[in-house]
Amino acid sequence: MSVITIERKVLEKNDVIAQQNRNKFKLKNRFVMNFVSSPGSGKTSVVEKTIELSKGNFRVGVIEGDVQTNLDAERVSKFNVPVVQIVTNGGCHLEANLVRDAYKNLENEEFEVLIIENVGNLVCPSNYDLGEDIKVVILSTTEGEDKPLKYPAMFRNAAVLIINKIDLIPYLDCNIEVMKKNALAINPQLEIFEVSCKTGEGLNDWINWIKKKIEKL
Amino acid sequence: MHELSIAQEILNIVKNSIPSETQKLKSVKIRVGKLSGILIDSLKFCFEAIINDTEFSGASLDVIEIPIKISCAECKTDTELNEPIFICPRCNSFNVQLLAGRELEITEIEVED
Ligand SMILES: Nc1nc2c(ncn2[C@@H]2O[C@H](COP(=O)(O)OP(=O)(O)OP(=O)(O)O)[C@@H](O)[C@H]2O)c(=O)[nH]1
Ligand SMILES: [Mg+2]
Ligand SMILES: [Zn+2]
């Protein structure tokens, strides 16, 4: 019997491609965000609102990830922005090579901000670097205050938390202060925005934050 | 949910690391952090499933679970955490760094000579 020492990261292949993606994004000075959430928290809605409010501020390109269908890309393409759909065929997360291939179709378009909408899932996407600058977690008020504690890896790795659907608070038992407190216990550096994609509340702060980010690039 | 693709990646790396094809794989040792989001039972199940009926059939996946460990910038203490609440239990500071817990690494394999 002999023992062979390996000492390698299981996802090293993904990490290498993610780094190549990152270099490509840098080359064009693009600010890249990876949107993650449970199914239905409002990722596509935030993408739509961000595009709507970006007019005159910055331009947006989008990579949509979904298990099946290109419905989300269809929603986004109504806004006349560059968009590519990745269908993972059952895969529960996006991987760097999928983003690399999708980005080839976007690379020469004109935009400053790239949003990658990941597959709706709060667990698996946290292991896979795509080459993004930051992860943005979207959590809706209907999901309960405890989600940050149940999915700590995702909240720890994100730079921004968008609490969506605040228009529904009057109808729910959700205590948004507890939700924020839980999120900050996992990640005190989190930048938190409270928004409603239905009423538009809170979204201007989000847009201004993106503007500041790209000014620094 | 993604344990199957993780198991596949492990097997790929193992395949490339066995010196000669005639050597039978006995075990694979991996380190998995408690903050990696990996379900160990599910990973073992997937690993067994994909090596079944291959030349690697019967090899075991030995998992070393790595606890979450933080280092406090205020009181300079390192602590292992049972729960992922990133507050120093000694001085209650939020100013902590993650030292361990995100691992997902293959450390060694064992083969018959
Ligand atoms: N009341 C209310 N509903 C919202 C809000 N934002 C999104 N929704 C609704 O929530 C549902 C899901 O929104 P999506 O934007 O499709 O969510 P998603 O995260 O992209 O969903 P998947 O891609 O399928 O994971 C839709 O019916 C939206 O209209 C909000 O702020 N308030
Ligand atoms: Mg969507
Ligand atoms: Zn301390």
Please tell me about this protein's structure:
- The complex is a heterodimer of chains A (217) and B (113).
- Chain A has one domain (2-215): 3-Layer(aba) Sandwich (Rossmann fold), CATH 3.40.50.
- Chain A has helices at 12-27, 43-54, 71-77, 96-104, 147-150, 152-157, 176-186, 203-215; strands at residues 2-9, 31-36, 60-66, 83-87, 113-117, 134-140, 160-164, 191-194.
- Chain A contains eight helices and eight strands.
- The longest helix of chain A is centred in the N-terminal third of the chain and has 16 residues, at 12-27.
- Chain A is α/β, with parallel strands linked by helices and 217 residues long.
- Chain B is of the alpha+beta class and 113 residues long.
- Chain B has helices spanning 3-17, 40-51; strands at 25-33, 60-66, 68-72, 78-81, 96-100, 104-111.
- In chain B, helix 2 (40-51) links the parallel strand 1 and strand 2 (60-66).
- The mean pLDDT of chain B is 94.
- At the A-B interface, strand 1, helix 6 and helix 7 of A face helix 1 and strand 6 of B.
- Guanosine-5'-triphosphate (GTP) binds next to helix 2 of chain A.
- Zinc ion binds next to loops of chain B.
Count of alpha and pi helical runs of chain B: 2
Assembly level: heterodimer
| Fraction in helix of chain B | 10-25%
Identify the bound ligands. guanosine-5'-triphosphate, magnesium ion, zinc ion
